[in-house]
Amino acid sequence: MSETAELIREDDPIMESDFAKEMVRQMRAIDTYGTYDNWSTAKILEPFILTKEMKREIPVVGDPDEIVMARVKAFYNAISSLIEKECGLMAVPMMNLSHEGFGRAIITVGKLVVMDKTLRDVHRFGFPSLSKMKEEADKLLSVALEMTSKHSEVAGM
What does the DSSP 8-state code read for residue 106? Predict the structure, then answer.
């Protein structure tokens, strides 16, 4: 069993959150060969967890591969989906990444930019724990929903 599988428990209450369910849905959506069909939720979310020790093993300079970039997209797609679920308006995630793993992730609702995140060292994308990943997603989601409600006329365009 890998180190990360020990860090994610199937009985963790976070696994029942809308965020975790949406993350699993997004990961299954990018799985064109059905590899994740029989995997547990913990095993699907396991690659998002990178402890400090695991990050130290990854070189500081490196190019992200397609699998890592797909994980980053799944994370922001999940947030977009939760924004849609909460406010009822279509949220569109957009990412622009260089081959070196630098770029930007943006989520728009109508003509309103509700999230703008600079991405660095994408080849080392991950969170220390499942709870930290959910905290980051909740923070981004709450700011986006606040912006949407505050500027509803722009969001509705």
Answer: E
